[in-house]
């Protein structure tokens, strides 16, 4: 019989009192503000630009080009996060990303489309993902292991909210600067501020303070990179809590990708303004705000829900809520229900994601953690690209497809089944849970 041990929650003030955590958080926030502004600026330039047209397959192509290529190299790049000083990686990656943000903005301003635009945007997205993986891998170096979950919830929640704020800034700038290619280019270029600030804050860290402490890779960089994918996959598979929660998260991402495509099409081609509720890119901003509220609630409640219910029940409950919401709020395809669905589904997905982050940070060794996070991010991207592409092949231009909504619901149920089965296959029934049985007192499996 397991004894439940009460856990003392630190709260944000205690975490913000740690100088290195505060600096790491600032690095994440300015980076994700720039990401949010860049992505929303680019979405406005491509999807809601009166000078351009976008059908479902064009949207899917954009996702594939932006996320797909990086998904192939991400796990190999992850080897560098476990080999090089992560402070230096964040610094160089931030500056390089800033340069490509300006190139992407120039491509938009010149009216370029297709491959020239996507390749530049791909590099920006790739470095953004690389930075995110590096900052997540560094978190255990600035926070005690017993409080990783709470620290991760705080960092991930504030990061996601600041990204939403960045997207809102892009929408506001677009209104001021214009919706055409010229205005979109100027809006997108402002995102370079986030990259420059990220590099400046990262430069304040002392060398080596973000890890890695040990390097277990071959001396030759080429060999280390070649093993990046395999090492990350092995580490994830041999950690039951990681493989099970990751399966649940990937199912959510597939369902979310389908819902995202439907929402984009509805906002552009079907919905019309309803008083305070808006369609078009302004409506997409309202969807982002609703999702941001869900992320905030997840950050405030996940840690306490896991304390009360245990990790297994928390993830199962989140998937069931998302599935029910997908049917009840997605099928009507009305502007108000889509906004509520964005809140609930984003909340549920963020609950699952926080548990996956904690699993990797808590149960995977520091010497391979960067590769696992890079693999995690890569699978995340591939799943979304595949879901959006498959949905685009059958989606009507106006986005009204009940079959796709039901398909998204099915993915949640598949993720639930995969989570339960994979967790049950762990060799030791009393193996520490996602948050650690030693500090949570809840067995899993």
CATH architecture: Up-down Bundle
Strand content: under 5%
- Mean pLDDT over all positions: 82
- Give the helix level as a range of percent: over 70%
Order of helices and strands: HHHHHHHHHHHHHHHHH
State the fourth-level CATH superfamily.
MFS general substrate transporter like domains
Radius of gyration: 21 Å
Q: Give me the secondary-structure category.
A: mainly alpha
Distance between the termini: 14 Å
What is the topology?
Layout: H1 12-16, H2 19-46, H3 56-81, H4 86-109, H5 115-138, H6 148-177, H7 181-189, H8 192-202, H9 221-226, H10 228-237, H11 240-270, H12 280-309, H13 311-330, H14 335-363, H15 366-394, H16 402-424, H17 437-440
Explained architecture:
This protein has 445 residues and is mainly α. It has one domain: Growth Hormone, Chain: A. Helix content is 76%, strand content 0%. α11 runs antiparallel to α14 (335-363) and α13 (311-330) packs antiparallel against α14. The radius of gyration is 21 Å and the shape is globular. The chain starts with 11 loop residues before the first helix and ends in a 5-residue tail after the last helix. Residues 1-7 and 427-445 have low confidence and may be disordered.
């Amino acid at each position: 019989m397991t004894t439940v041990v009460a856990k003392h929650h630190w709260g944000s003030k205690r975490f913000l009192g740690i100088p290195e955590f505060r600096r790491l958080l600032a690095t994440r926030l300015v980076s994700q503000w720039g990401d949010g502004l860049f992505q929303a600026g680019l979405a406005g330039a491509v999807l809601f630009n009166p000078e351009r047209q976008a059908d479902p397959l064009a949207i899917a192509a954009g996702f594939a080009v932006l996320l797909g290529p990086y998904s192939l190299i991400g796990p190999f790049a992850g080897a560098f996060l476990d080999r090089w000083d992560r402070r230096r990686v964040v610094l160089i990656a931030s500056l390089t990303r800033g340069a490509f943000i300006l190139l992407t903005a120039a491509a938009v301003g010149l009216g370029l489309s297709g491959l020239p635009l996507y390749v530049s945007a791909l590099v920006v997205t790739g470095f953004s993902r690389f930075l995110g993986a590096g900052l997540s891998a560094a978190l255990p170096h600035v926070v005690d292991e017993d409080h990783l979950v709470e620290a991760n919830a705080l960092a991930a929640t504030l990061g996601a909210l600041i990204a939403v704020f960045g997207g809102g800034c892009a929408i506001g700038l677009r209104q001021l600067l214009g919706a055409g290619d010229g205005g979109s280019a100027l809006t997108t270029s402002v995102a370079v501020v986030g990259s420059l600030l990220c590099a400046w804050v990262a430069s304040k860290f002392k060398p080596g303070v973000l890890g890695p402490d040990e390097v277990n890779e071959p001396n030759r960089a080429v060999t280390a990179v070649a093993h990046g994918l395999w090492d990350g996959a092995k580490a994830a598979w041999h950690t039951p809590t990681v493989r099970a929660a990751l399966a649940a998260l990937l199912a959510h991402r597939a369902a979310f990708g389908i819902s995202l495509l439907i929402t984009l099409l509805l906002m552009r081609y079907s919905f019309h303004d309803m008083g305070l509720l808006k369609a078009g890119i302004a409506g997409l901003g309202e969807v982002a705000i609703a999702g941001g509220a869900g992320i905030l609630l997840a950050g405030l409640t996940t840690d306490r829900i896991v304390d009360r219910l245990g990790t297994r029940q928390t993830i199962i409950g989140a998937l069931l809520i998302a599935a029910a919401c997908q049917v009840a709020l997605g099928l009507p395809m009305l502007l108000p229900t889509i906004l509520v669905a964005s809140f609930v589904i984003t909340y549920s997905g963020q609950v699952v994601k926080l548990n996956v982050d904690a699993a990797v940070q808590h149960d995977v060794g520091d010497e391979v953690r960067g590769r696992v996070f890079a693999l995690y991010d890569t699978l995340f991207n591939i799943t979304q690209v595949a879901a959006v592409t498959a949905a685009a092949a059958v989606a009507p231009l106006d986005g009204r497809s009940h079959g796709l909504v039901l398909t998204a619901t099915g993915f949640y149920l598949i993720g639930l089944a995969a989570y339960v089965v994979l967790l049950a296959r762990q060799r030791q029934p009393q193996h520490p849970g996602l948050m650690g049985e030693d500090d949570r007192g809840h067995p899993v499996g």
